[in-house]
Amino acid sequence: MKKNKLKFGFPIGALRQEVLELFLAAGYDIKFSEHIQKIDIDDAEIDCVLVRPIPMASLIEKGFLDVGISTDSAVLETRAKVNKVCDLEYIKPPFPKMRIVVGAPESSKIRTLKNLAGKKIITRIPNIAKEFLKKNKISAEILYSDAPINEPIVGVAADAIIEFFQFGEFFKAYKMKVIATIMERSLILIANENSLNQGWKKEKIKNLAILLKGARLGQEMAGLMLHASNDTMEEVLKILPSLKKPTVTQLRGENWFDVLTVANKKEIRKIVPKLKKIGCKSIVEFPLNKVVL
Question: 19 near 11, Cβ under 8 Å?
Answer without folding.
Answer: yes
